[in-house]
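Incident log, structure service

09:12 report received: a user says their structure output differs between two submissions of the same chain.
09:20 pulled the input from the user's history:
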Amino acid sequence: MRQISYPIRRHELYELIDSGEGPDVEFKRQFSSPEKIAREIIAFANTRGGYLLFGVDDDGTVVGVRSEKSELELVEDAARWMADPPVEIVTENVHAGYGKDIVLVRVPESSVKPHTLVDYDAGGHRASDQTRTGFVRYEDKSVQASREVMSVMRGQSPHSAPLKIFVGYNEKALFAFLERRGRITVDEFADLVNISRRRASKILVNLVRAGTVLIHSYEKTEFFTLAK
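09:34 re-ran on a clean worker, output below:
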């Protein structure tokens, strides 16, 4: 997450806009549903943090928003009630000039990952934890996190159990394959050593946690490489 002053200076605002959407910047022309806002906030918190700008079109055109208190509360409520655990954010109303206002939302990288989206039923009750999904930032999009990415985030929590790594036949076969081919998916690893996908996933996640292997997200696909 790039560092900008607080409150943001106008030249910093336009530098942020001119840089375009990316891993740590998302533009929104107007306020949308709490669920859509929460997804963006969760994705930033689960990745490296970022800035959500309301009142800016996808092409960087400043259109402005009505910075009413109720709309700012909508963003804060999305971070508080639709993310589990809640995400701490900072909202800022910025005068962009020409009579237009932009709402800037700062989302720091979280230390309590993963955050998931909370669903509510028709009666306003929170849905089961089993159905919750997490989101991460990939390039200029917020995408649903895979099972492996979620496991890596849980394993990086300060409350997770100590990590124990055993290098046996499966791990050695994996390292040899990566030396030759450079990358591998969970399914390819499972086929390589003839084990279940669940076991293959667990081995890869533990090796990522140990810093031996890196996980890479490409839209809806994950692959793994040796750490350099």
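09:41 both user submissions now match this output. Likely a transient worker issue. Closing.
09:42 reviewer note: The radius of gyration is 20 Å. Residues 34-46 form the longest helix (13 residues).
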